[in-house]
Amino acid sequence: MVRKQTRPRGIGDALERMHAVTDMHTQPGHRETGFDQRTLARVAGEITELPAVATQDWVDQAATALTGIDPWCRVGMAIATLEPNGQVHVIEAVGAGVSEKEREQLTDPKADMLGLRVRLERMTDLGITLPDAALRRGLAAVCSDLGPWRDGPLSRVWNPAGVEKLLIGIVPIGKGEPNRSLLVFVALGHAPNGSTRANARTLGALLPLLAQRVRKALPAEGPISWMTDREQDVLERLILGRSVREIAEELGRSPHTVHDHVKSLHRKLDASSRGELVARALGHGTREKSELDPVVIERVRAAAQIEPAPGTGAAARRPG
Questions:
Q1: In the chain, how many domains are there?
Q2: What is the reported pTM?
Q3: Residues 141-163: pLDDT tens digits?
Q4: What's the rounded Cα separation, in Å, for the pair 130 and 85?
Q5: CATH code at 301?
Q6: How far is residue 227's CA from residue 218's CA, in Å, rounded to a whole number?
């Protein structure tokens, strides 16, 4: 499967900037919240390594990346069309992940994650009213701040998992479909006092990075052209520099069949050449800058309430 590819050029520099951002002095009283700057940097690194193409397990990989927010958590995700009243219409894909410590407590982690995916697919209503700007600008919040989620439909999704606290995040991903969003849940099973809001702020700080990666991998409108398993096999070998004939031999298929897969990949990734196809797969195609946008970095800093270092903030970039 297409995962953990060589980091695109520019992402390494961007991550160094992320580490610089998260290592800076925090505002007075900030440390008392339990906000972990290293966690922010580590999970940000995981997000930047998500596939830049719509692999079938993309949502699972994204959910797993966010499990780094807390040692005891489960993460559920859905690509869905939402309404401000909390109704969920079209669910295009779901994914689930569990942190290592939480996994150790589960009798059958695979069955647990499968059950979570099924419950997410059946979700039709959040049972809470979303803030006005949530579907336009995104949201990261403690679910109980938005309404009594345990008394509504979300209880059917999360109560079987023994959840103590639930965080919700919304990442707008649609243009022609303005309410199309990536819906994120972080369920905390062993949340110590004071950590829940710190985790919510960490989630909020990471959402701009996640939004950028979502928009790189998934189309802004229209159906998602998910790659098939065989297309993923072919794409991985193209990234390694294999020829069509070599790929055919390795996969036990005819060169004609492999060529058809390559043509399908060109169409799905909107690539006009083999080099552009590989570049898009690695996340540094021409449609979007490969380096994390400075505005995104600034939003992460602001969401985390971290002061900029001298020479790195917006004031430093303002012309004299």
A1: 2
A2: 0.71
A3: 999 999 899 889 999 999 876 78
A4: 6
A5: 3.30.450.40
A6: 11
